[in-house]
Amino acid sequence: MAVVEQNRLSPDAANNITVDSPLNIGTDSGAANAYNVTVTPAITVLRTGLLVNFIAVNANLGASTLEVCNLSAKALSHVDGKELIRDAIPAGHFCIAMYDGTKWLLLNPAKTGATAGANMAFLQTQY
Predict the structure, then answer these.
(1) How many CB atoms are located within 10 Å of the residue 34 CB?
(2) Angle at 120 between CA 102 and CA 100, to 5 degrees
């Protein structure tokens, strides 16, 4: 419930958020660099602060996108806005992504390179 309240989301059908399922755990069926995730109940609108979790089928090779429930694919980046580096998402990685209103931010990259400090700073200000 804290995630819902912190992100000013209402636990109702319009936002596709429920108290029982605030983390939107989905299934990836995409390709390397193009992740396609489906969650149940389906998300019909991307809202700032929306969290989506999934296990990546493929590793990323560089810049990537995330498409959720057949809505428009959006860039998937590090929390500092930089493109994902190679192997930020290894195959089988449990990914936590948050929509910032324009792109998806990968909150738990396996490999961060120079962005490690930015990821930690972002998480410390959010939680």
Answers:
(1) 14
(2) 10
